[in-house]
């Protein structure tokens, strides 16, 4: 299976080449030439495997220049017991009614990004060997909070790599910031970027398409790549946990093989819900994909109206990983919805770049709405949902997951849809203790680390060790850069 650019269907590379490059030379995103398919019998067989076995089988269909043995070895190391709970890498917890929560935060950084970013370093180093690349790979990352730490944790001191992360100054939780700024490793760098996540993401994209800068780096032995979900090696591992969720529903007796499910995802950059879309189109029985946004509800408006418009106020919310107005991975979906028409896709992206908005044709909107529903929740609704859920069921969720729960409840009330539903839980509530505590009726006291103890006492849950240990770590990275000067910051770091 080869991969083509969303902006030029004639540009084709292998999976290994796509992982090394991250972004296509024309600025497009890599996408499979065709999607693999799973029969119901094959999905039933997956339910008898553990998480590593399920992920190996799913990824082997997408990464065809890797052997199953190579993938099994990489996946086993990525999801090793010292990093993820051995009995429940991605546990599915019954919520109430027809809903279950897919907990994706039990990895080393307490966020769903660990599933991809513990595996990506293994895939990337193997891809470098397969492509014969000798240069040091420089990973550039823009993060709204969780990707940065997960990428740093995955790539720290990995031979042949360097990693530089940009996060929006003042746009993450304090715990998220300290997770990044205290990162150990000789090959890592972290900058705060002035502005919001979109400014940081656009700055990274400008670096990627700067051919002159790439040539300068190549002369010095460096090759740029990405650990954002624009990299197919980041997105592909996420497809596996939706297959696993279906298998868990089967094993729990909540569905029969072939029964459809709904999937709800709290969404910012559109990568996580796009992985669910790919799972559906590979044969996973999915009825509706429900896109949940916070007050930055550009995706809700797009799915509702067909107009994507980033010309709006930007809000800093209690769910900062979703504080995004330019959802990069939407480009992959648009490419498929418009019949893999690269010319039409380029026109959408040109309008977004020059006008900040575009409107899709009716047939594209009809296709979109046939598969997706959407809604949003503001901070007050998010807080109320955390409190109501905790009081009713004893289940404690973070602010992002609460957005998804609220949007699902609104959807179910509006439509009467009783389909068994999986809600992606993307982060530990302890990462956002300052917002979760008042939601369950506790007034926060003290610093960030006191809040961890307070939330533990109030909920009866232990604070994750990885977060509690931050208190003893010194912040290494404190530089703040203008988004227009991000390239200079990267160049200076690499020449130190």
What would you call the quaternary organization? single chain
For the sheet with most strands, the description reads: 6 strands, mixed
User: What is the tally of beta strands?
Assistant: 16
User: How much is the radius of gyration in Å?
Assistant: 21 Å
Overall structural class, as computed from helix and strand content, comes to: alpha/beta
Separation of termini? 40 Å
> Total helix count?
22
Can you tell me the CATH class of the domain at 85-111 and 235-432? Alpha Beta
Question: What's the overall average pLDDT, rounded?
Answer: 95
- The CATH architecture term of the domain at 85-111 and 235-432 is 3-Layer(aba) Sandwich
Biggest sheet: strand arrangement: 4-5-15-10-11-14
Task: Report the helical percentage.
Answer: 40-55%
Strand % is 15-25%
How would you describe what is shown here?
With 496 residues, this protein is an alpha/beta fold. It has a domain at 85-111 and 235-432: Rossmann fold. Helices cover 46% and strands 16% of the residues. The chain has 22 helices and 16 strands. It has helices at 15-21, 40-46, 51-62, 68-78, 114-117, 120-131, 146-155, 174-181, 197-208, 211-219, 232-251, 271-281, 298-305, 330-337, 342-355, 362-371, 379-393, 399-415, 433-439, 448-459, 465-468, 486-494, and strands spanning 3-5, 8-13, 30-32, 92-94, 99-103, 136-142, 161-168, 188-193, 222-226, 261-266, 286-293, 307-309, 357-359, 372-376, 421-425, 480-481. A six-stranded mixed β-sheet has the order 4-5-15-10-11-14, with helices on both faces. It has a five-stranded parallel β-sheet with strand order 9-6-7-8-16, with helices on both faces. It has a three-stranded antiparallel β-sheet with strand order 2-1-3. A hairpin with a 2-residue loop joins strand 1 (3-5) and strand 2. Helix 3 crosses helix 4, helix 17 packs across helix 18 and helix 17 packs across helix 19. The longest helix is centred in the middle third of the chain and has 20 residues, at 232-251. It is globular, with a radius of gyration of 21 Å. The model has no long low-confidence stretch (mean pLDDT 95).
